[in-house]
Amino acid sequence: MTLRECWFYAPRVEAEQDQEQEKQVADQARTRTWTSADGEFIAQARFVKSDLTTVTLEKMDGTVVNVPLEELCEEDKTFIEKGGAKASAR
User: Fold this and answer.
1) How many CB atoms lie within 10 A of CB 76?
2) Tens digits of per-residue pLDDT, 7-16?
């Protein structure tokens, strides 16, 4: 029996495509909806980092934005304060 005849054989190109798909799925899983304090603005973005005054988010199109914490809704502030951002980055 050759490797090609085994049920688990996958060409390298397919394996690389699978890894890219897995990365995209993981990135989407870390993406959440962020809402402004007044509720007028909503964005799908991935948490990058935060400090005492600003949160850095990466939007779905790859744009990185810095948002003052005071401009986020209470739910988003709580998410950051409780370490949810760390858990979602795994």
Assistant:
1) 23
2) 555 555 566 7
